[in-house]
């Protein structure tokens, strides 16, 4: 069924709010129904041409897009910092990582798309069509590029429904493609609200959808995709465990744990959120970790001396503060931090929760802020049990020098990713995604490329 979008209401403006100051920033007009229809048809028409381009044309464009990210690093980073509050240094690193991803797919794409031969048959990869991406604000470039780079390489085209608060970042992403010489319909930012997503998914010009976001958003998108019988990839919440065993390098583990918890002001799906520490080293780890968390400087995200900026909005800070009240009502104890800092901006101090009851529903909360939960485990079995007790299964980090323990963790931790003796991080070459209520499907690496391609079998 093809749907024709027509204007039938007054369309509001998106206005970004600087979470460091509360001051309004640039405004962007929401697309009218007629404008959505134009972009949809443009995507459809562009795909008919782009699918026929050769691999050399696609990879050359990816290289030029990477060059645009390089040339505009400072401007792109400042836009992200103003719109969602991450530190400028982390925003710069995010932009550089995006350039790395485009180059990765440009350089490795040919190998990823090699046909596979079988007795009497060959399997070949082919593009599917326009893919809709529904993306969040926390990594406003990287989350999108994880879908965007392989989409272009595959011969597909992309449509982005970005978070309302980061429309400047969404517009900039489209600008990078155009500046690199890409056709106008290859990647388009749709400045729309969430209430338009169901109709987009139902439109027969959209062949698939990918979402990074909350469980609730994931369920709505999956339901809409199911009704339309369309492929969907979901990267949802996480409450990642960070397990420390007696053989671990405690200095390295504690330092990594602080970074893993407060990066992006704790607003990352793969932030380590639950520190699970063996009883034999609990006190020693706690001393190092708590000192590190208390030393975290929350301040102006444009200042290189700041370890973290504000939360993304006043609303997000209020959500985290409300969650902390629920934890305390359930019997958990906030040792320090977790306070709204005075003055302008959505700032909050880093903190640690202990005595969190693992059998209470509050333990299933994903804290999207700079607050760590600390648990004590008697042995590896209890550590794995605590790690797996939540409904999420995105990532994990384990710290041990024991080969047998490592093997147990790799086998028994219920997660899509596991980092050993290091902080979990995403990388262009490594498949990214989770299990359980953290979603399904994969981004990045060859598997992320293949998610939205038709594996066509040729017999004879």
TrEMBL record:
InterPro entries on file: Ald_DH/histidinol_DH, Ald_DH_C, Ald_DH_CS_CYS, Ald_DH_N, Aldehyde_DH_dom, ALDH_GabD1-like, GABD/Sad-like
Keyword NADP part of the UniProt annotation: yes
UniProt keyword annotations, A-Z: NADP, Oxidoreductase
Domain Aldehyde dehydrogenase: 6-458
A Pfam match: Aldedh
Presence of the UniProt keyword ATP-binding in the record: no
CDD domains reported for this sequence: ALDH_SSADH1_GabD1 (cd07100)
Lineage: Bacteria, Pseudomonadati, Pseudomonadota, Alphaproteobacteria, Sphingomonadales
PROSITE patterns (alphabetical): ALDEHYDE_DEHYDR_CYS (PS00070)
Gene3D superfamilies, A to Z: Aldehyde Dehydrogenase, Chain A, domain 1, Aldehyde Dehydrogenase, Chain A, domain 2
Protein name, entry field: Succinate-semialdehyde dehydrogenase [NADP(+)] 1
Annotated gene: gabD1
Protein family membership: Belongs to the aldehyde dehydrogenase family.
């Amino acid at each position: 069924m093809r749907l024709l979008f027509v204007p039938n209401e007054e369309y509001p403006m998106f206005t970004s709010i600087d979470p460091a100051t509360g001051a309004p920033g640039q405004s962007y007009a929401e697309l009218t129904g007629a404008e959505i229809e134009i972009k949809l048809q443009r995507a459809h028409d562009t795909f008919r041409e782009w699918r026929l381009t050769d691999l050399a044309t696609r990879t050359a464009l990816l290289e030029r897009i990477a060059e645009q990210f390089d040339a505009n690093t400072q401007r792109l980073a400042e836009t992200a910092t103003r719109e969602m509050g991450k530190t400028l240094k982390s925003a710069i690193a995010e932009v550089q990582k995006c350039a790395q991803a485009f180059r990765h797919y440009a350089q490795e794409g040919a190998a990823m798309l090699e046909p596979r031969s079988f007795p009497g048959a060959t399997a070949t990869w082919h593009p599917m069509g326009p893919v809709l991406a529904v993306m969040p604000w926390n990594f406003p470039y990287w989350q999108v590029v994880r879908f965007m780079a392989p989409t272009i390489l595959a011969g597909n085209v992309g449509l982005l429904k970005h978070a309302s608060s980061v429309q400047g970042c969404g517009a900039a992403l489209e600008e990078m493609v155009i500046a690199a010489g890409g056709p106008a319909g290859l990647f388009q930012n749709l400045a729309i609200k969430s209430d338009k997503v169901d109709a987009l998914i139902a439109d027969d010009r959209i062949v698939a959808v990918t979402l990074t976001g909350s469980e609730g958003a994931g369920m709505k998108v999956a339901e809409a995709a199911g009704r339309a019988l369309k492929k969907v990839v979901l990267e949802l919440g996480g409450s990642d465990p960070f397990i420390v065993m007696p053989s671990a390098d405690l200095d390295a583990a504690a330092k990594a744990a602080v970074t893993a918890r407060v990066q992006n002001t704790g607003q990352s799906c793969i932030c380590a959120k639950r520190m699970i520490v063996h009883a034999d080293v609990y006190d020693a780890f706690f001393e190092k970790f708590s000192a590190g968390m208390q030393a975290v400087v929350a301040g102006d995200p444009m200042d290189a001396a700041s370890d973290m900026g504000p939360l993304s909005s006043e609303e997000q800070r209020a959500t985290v503060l409300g969650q902390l009240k629920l934890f305390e009502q359930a019997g958990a104890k906030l040792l320090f931090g977790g306070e709204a800092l005075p003055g302008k901006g959505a700032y909050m101090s880093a903190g640690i929760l202990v005595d969190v009851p693992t059998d209470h529903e509050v333990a299933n909360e994903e804290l999207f802020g700079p607050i760590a939960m600390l648990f004590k485990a008697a042995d590896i079995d209890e550590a794995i049990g605590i790690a797996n007790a939540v409904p999420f299964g995105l990532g994990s980090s384990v710290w041990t020098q024991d080969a047998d323990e490592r093997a147990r963790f790799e086998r028994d931790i219920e997660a899509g990713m596991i980092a050993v003796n290091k902080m979990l991080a995403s990388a262009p070459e490594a498949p990214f995604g989770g299990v359980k209520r953290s979603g399904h499907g994969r981004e990045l690496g060859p598997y992320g490329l293949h998610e939205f391609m038709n594996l066509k079998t040729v017999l004879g």
